[in-house]
Amino acid sequence: MYKKIILTAISFLLLFTLGGCSPSAAPKEPRLFGFTAMDMTDQSFRLALAELEELVNQNGDSLITFDPQLDNEKQLQGISDMISQGIEVLFLNPVDINGILPALRECQENGVKIICFDSKVSDASYIETFVGGDNYKMGWLIGDYIKKDFPQGGTLAYLTNPQAGSILLREQGLLESLEGSNIEVIDVHEISRYEEVLPATEKLLEDNDSIDIIWGFNDDICLMMHSCAVANERQDQITFYATGGNPGILDAVKRGNVRAVSVQSPADWGKVCGELCYKLLDGEEVNSDYLLEASIIDTESVNAYEMDQ
Asked: Are strands 260-263 and 239-244 parallel, antiparallel or unpaired?
């Protein structure tokens, strides 16, 4: 009888050992994370999300998303809803770098770690780290390229978004690169929503008979501004430049509609964000910033660039 009990116990232990586990091992509880970017119609954010989701799923965890559609109040509510669902980490690209502060405080009160990507918040004390392209350098590279294309000078007009930290850094890089050149900024309009782009561009064209250069602060903005110039039969008088690097803008570079674009890799935002998330959860130290490399793509280099991606 005792022998039978002992054999049964041994068989039980072997079952767990051969199965790769022990009697005391418990299955890992899946973790829940949240993701929100200012506008998911932007392909950059979709690329970042796809890479992040792949990594999270490989680890047996889950990611919920919210698209605020460039509305700060919606983003605040979406983050609050994700917190109530039990997220441990929030991946955040803010609609408004100042308006997002109530959500940052709510995350802090509930022990939710924040990783910002592409655009920081106005108070970095609330976040663990930031991942993005070197937005200042992306603007600087475009400004430097414009100077080389227009050594005798030219007139520049563009749109900006004062609520987006990434755009303000690109604008700063552009303008500081152009200092001391013969490039004259003749008009700038502020926008915060995509539906404002075409009316603002119409106004730029209407108010300025002679625009040599237009810069789009992201791919979609540049393409929309170009389409507006086409509608006004001004496209052949203006040279277009962009910042971003998604397939649509690369096609425009190949067709000659856009002269050059400063690029980064949004997919890498997602990869690096995911890696940093698990480091944080394991108690590891991370840096305050992770800036990814930026470069210039033009008609001469676009095909080689696409082959490398």
From this structure: parallel
Could you list the residue range(s) of the whole structural domain that residue 64 is in? Answer: 32-132+266-292
- pLDDT tens for 242-289 read 998 888 899 999 999 999 999 988 889 999 999 999 999 999 999 999
> Within a domain: residue 284?
yes
> Which residues have CB under 8 Å from 100's CB, separation 6+?
72, 75, 76, 92, 94, 121
- Residues 38 and 117 grouped into a single domain: yes
Clarify whether residues 140 and 245 are in a common domain: yes
Q: Give CA torsion, residues 175, 176, 180, 184, to 10 deg.
A: 0
**Greater pLDDT, 19 or 155:** 155
Q: How far apart are CA 278 and CA 288, in angstroms?
A: 16
In the predicted structure, residue 18 carries a pLDDT above the cut 90:
no
Question: Which spans in the chain are helix H?
Answer: 2-18, 43-58, 72-84, 101-109, 135-149, 165-178, 197-207, 219-231, 247-255, 266-281, 302-308
d(CA 263, CA 142): 10
Q: Tens of pLDDT along 136-156?
A: 999 999 999 999 999 999 999
